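for the recovery benchmark. tokens below, seq after
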């Protein structure tokens, strides 16, 4: 139902400043929500007494929330990206501890309830404006949805980022990571249930995080989807297709590493036909959970810091479950066209300059390779890549060993990654050079490492709590 007509019919005389509670009421009354053309603000910026809508669903003061009533797939639609705009209010009053909370525009029931509820959504035709520029203290994200068969189509996402603040004595504090779209399976899902899809969406103008503690900062990830990592439930049908990503930063001001797509706890996922342009981060990044039979194909990346980073960390050392330790099994990376950036590829606030790479990887050496091999049949073939002087095609970043992180020159290469028939142009060369690299056998005999680690800032030592 058209939400404007709904307000006229059921709340006559109201002139909504905050549309979130009305959309929440519609969804939890069994209706779907159709936003017409226009700008619709979510959240409010003045302290007011909670009315009946706020009292019924307190979080809808700032978010559209659903999941009560009969189980169903809800639909939230607009007139098209650029036509229907959902925008976070300026100077949002969050209603919770402002220094430590993130704001989500769409939120399905289940957070804090062990994600027990299967409450999927199909979202389409909307521009989501996170308005981080006016709410920099908060981490602002577009949606966190838990359910079977989630789809996000033909939407646009602008100005989302992690928050930043200082405490009473001026010391920078941590804030939550930003997953612009976070979606996965409920803890009650059957194995191999249908996972999320993000199709024909655009991600641009990410916000800047300018206040962070040194050495580590929370990350800004556009799409984080998969199964349910906590319950070890694998999803099928996970897909990111036809999406566009851009993110050019001021290297002095920006402090949050930028990632395009991350997936976990899935089998047969497809990341195909996407476009990355002037992207100051890794287009595809994973540091948590298992994935099998992923296909990364026919993507185009122009002027990017890195196309792929796979990080195999020993999360048990940080107190997490063994299921969070990554495994990349039967991954095919083919027919992608990538031009790497010739500019420095780290954020100047906290790290030395690095160089771009088509694929970077890391493996912690306090893992048992017989139990956690990390990389098993990762195939890199038939890609067309332009590499500037000083940059690399595949880089070993090293890993944890002997009480701390060690560079690739110390720990040696990691097996399981094979490359062949890639068309590589290096430096200022005009002709295309065809390279075929010898297959690396499945053994842990150390060898000479390749590449230079970009920096610890891009290793992403943050728990993936989106699933």
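predicted aa per position
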């Amino acid at each position: 139902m058209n939400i404007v007509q709904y307000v006229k019919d059921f709340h006559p005389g109201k002139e909504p400043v905050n549309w979130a509670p009305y959309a929440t009421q519609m969804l939890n009354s069994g209706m779907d929500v159709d936003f017409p053309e226009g700008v619709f603000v979510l959240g409010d910026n003045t302290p007011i007494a909670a009315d009946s809508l706020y009292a019924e669903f307190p979080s809808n003061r700032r978010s559209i929330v659903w999941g009560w009533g009969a189980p169903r797939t809800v639909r939230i639609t607009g007139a098209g990206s650029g036509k229907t705009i959902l925008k976070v209010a300026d100077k949002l009053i969050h209603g919770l501890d402002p220094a430590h909370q993130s704001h989500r525009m769409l939120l399905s029931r289940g957070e804090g309830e062990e994600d027990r509820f299967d409450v999927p959504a199909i979202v389409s035709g909307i521009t989501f404006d996170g308005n981080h520029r006016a709410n920099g203290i908060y981490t602002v994200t577009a949606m966190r949805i838990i359910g079977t068969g989630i789809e996000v189509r033909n939407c646009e996402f602008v100005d989302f980022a992690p928050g930043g603040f200082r405490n009473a004595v001026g010391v920078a504090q941590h804030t939550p990571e930003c997953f612009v779209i976070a979606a996965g399976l409920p803890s009650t899902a059957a194995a191999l249930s249908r996972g999320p899809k993000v199709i024909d969406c655009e991600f641009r103008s990410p916000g800047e995080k300018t206040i962070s503690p040194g050495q580590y900062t929370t990350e800004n990830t556009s799409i984080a989807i998969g199964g349910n990592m906590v319950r070890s439930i694998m999803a099928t049908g996970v897909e990111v297709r036809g999406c566009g990503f851009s993110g050019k930063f001021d290297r002095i001001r920006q402090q949050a590493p930028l990632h395009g797509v991350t997936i976990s706890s899935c089998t047969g996922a497809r990341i195909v036909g996407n476009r990355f342009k002037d992207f100051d981060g890794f287009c595809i990044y994973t540091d948590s959970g298992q994935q099998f039979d992923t296909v990364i194909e026919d993507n185009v990346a122009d002027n990017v810091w890195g196309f792929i980073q796979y990080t195999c960390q020993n999360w048990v050392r940080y107190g997490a479950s063994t299921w969070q330790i990554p495994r990349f099994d039967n991954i095919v990376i083919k027919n992608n066209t990538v031009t790497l950036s010739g500019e420095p590829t780290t954020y100047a606030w906290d790290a030395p300059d690095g160089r771009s790479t088509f694929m970077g990887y890391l493996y912690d050496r306090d893992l048992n390779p017989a139990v956690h091999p990390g990389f098993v049949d990762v195939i890199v073939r038939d890609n067309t890549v332009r590499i500037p002087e000083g940059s690399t095609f595949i880089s070993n970043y090293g890993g944890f060993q002997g009480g701390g992180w060690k560079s690739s020159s110390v720990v040696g290469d990691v097996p399981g990654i094979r490359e062949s028939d890639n068309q590589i142009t290096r430096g200022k060369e005009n002709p295309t050079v065809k390279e075929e690299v010898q297959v690396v056998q499945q053994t842990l005999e150390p060898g000479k490492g390749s590449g230079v680690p970009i920096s610890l800032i891009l290793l992403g030592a943050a728990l993936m709590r989106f699933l």
